[in-house]
Design brief:
Blueprint lengths: L1 H22 L14 E7 L6 H9 L5 E8 L6 H11 L3 E4 L10 H12 L4 E5 L3 E3 L3 H11 L4 E8 L4 H6 L1 H8 L22 E5 H7 L11 H11 L4 E12 L5 H12 L8 H22 L3 H21 L4 H4 L1 H20 L4 E3 L2 E4 L2 E5 L2
Parallel strand pairs: 1-2, 1-4, 2-3, 6-8
Antiparallel strand pairs: 4-7, 5-8, 6-7, 9-10, 10-11
Length: 372
């Protein structure tokens, strides 16, 4: 009986992932030009190796870019120098003055808020320094936001994966989200439970951002992107997340160590209701991982149904989001990595240790220690 219950859960959650892969909101291709211009806002901390590619992709968008503002979040590399060089090459690019991080703020929300306060355009596009816009990306974002009357629109980026570690582990991010997030409902309900955003690329209407309070509302959040979308919906504003495959791409992490540290800082803090954390971890351990090992040890129909459901979901997601298909075959070790990562994230934050990221030591809601 328990085995069939697990198989049923695997079918239900994997089925949700398949539905999401099919109907996840696609960006609208622009027909004609837009009068609207956009302020592109790039928060940057130790991004000297990423800024050139990011800014180049932004400026290739043409006249839709009114200005490119960069905030140096107390970098100790050549980020300010790279930014100033670009400001000399194109008058639209401007490096904002760095100020000390205020008490009660985390670095990225503060950088984004400073950028938004300095921006002048009707639309604000928050863009991570490791993101690369595709041709016509901004026009697609504007067209999609206007078609769906969204004052906040995030594009779920195409994830670049070059090393075997990236190709093995990064598809799990999409599997994790798509087995939990009922994406069709974001179009029909304004409830905050249907909020989703990816911080690499978020478009916002400036007037709504200023009226609501923008990143000031998420100043203590490590998982600030989806938290911002939740605040949008609490205030009866429409936030949406669309497939950004033809809009933006990002290489989030390069090594297995980067993946381990990067997701640690978001995994446990990403749960607004902490009681959900053990339930989601149990879902992955019992429903998405265990059937593979059970079937190898003792083949049976329920375990086969469960693992087949997971494999089908992984294949459909791989096709839709252009992940390497071989990673589907390595699902069990990838799941074990995800579970271990979740446990480690919980341990670090619940015990008050926090994690280190870009030379800052983070606990939930605060920076414990910073080199600058």
């Amino acid at each position: 009986m328990i085995e069939w219950a697990i198989a049923g859960l695997a079918a239900v959650f994997s089925g949700l992932a398949v539905v999401n892969a099919i109907v996840f909101l696609r960006a609208r291709h622009s027909r004609g030009s837009f009068d609207a211009q956009v302020s592109v806002l790039i928060p940057a901390r130790n991004e000297e190796s990423n800024l050139d590619g990011c800014i180049e992709s932004v400026l290739r968008q043409g006249d839709s870019v009114a200005e490119v503002l960069i905030y140096d979040d107390q970098s100790d590399d050549a980020t300010p120098q790279v930014s100033r060089e670009w400001s000399r090459r194109d008058r639209r690019v401007r490096l904002l003055e760095t100020v000390p991080l205020p008490e009660g703020w985390l670095g990225k929300p503060h950088a984004c808020y400073r950028l938004a306060m300095a921006a002048r355009s009707r639309w604000l596009l928050f863009l991570d320094a490791d993101a690369r816009l595709e041709a016509g990306a901004i026009e697609q974002l504007l067209a999609t936001a206007q078609e769906h009357n969204a004052s906040l629109l995030s594009a779920w980026p195409a994830i670049e994966m070059h090393t075997p570690a990236e190709q093995l582990l990064m598809p799990m991010l999409t599997f994790y989200v798509m087995t939990l997030f009922p994406s069709p409902l974001q179009l029909f309900s304004i409830h905050q439970r249907y909020a989703l955003a990816h911080g690499a690329c978020i478009l916002s209407r400036r007037d709504v951002y200023l009226r609501i309070g923008g990143h000031r509302l998420v100043r203590t959040e490590l998982f600030e992107d989806t938290a911002l979308a939740r605040h949008w919906r609490r205030r009866k504003e429409r936030s949406l997340c669309c497939d950004g495959g033809g809009i933006v791409r990002v290489r989030m992490y390069r090594t297995i160590g980067d993946i381990w540290r990067g997701f640690q800082k978001n995994f446990y803090p990403g749960f607004r209701k902490k009681w959900l954390f053990p339930m989601v971890l149990a879902l992955h351990a019992v429903v998405f991982a265990a059937p593979f090992f059970v079937f190898v040890a003792s083949p049976n129909v329920p375990a086969f149904v469960a693992l087949s459901s997971v494999v089908v979901a992984r294949v459909v997601l791989a096709v839709r989001f252009r992940h390497p298909l071989w990673s589907v075959l390595a699902h069990p070790p990838a799941e074990l990595f995800l579970i271990a990562l979740g446990i480690r994230s919980w341990w670090q934050f619940s015990r008050g240790h926090g994690i280190e990221w870009k030379q800052r030591q983070y606990a939930i809601g605060r920076i414990v220690k910073s080199v600058r």
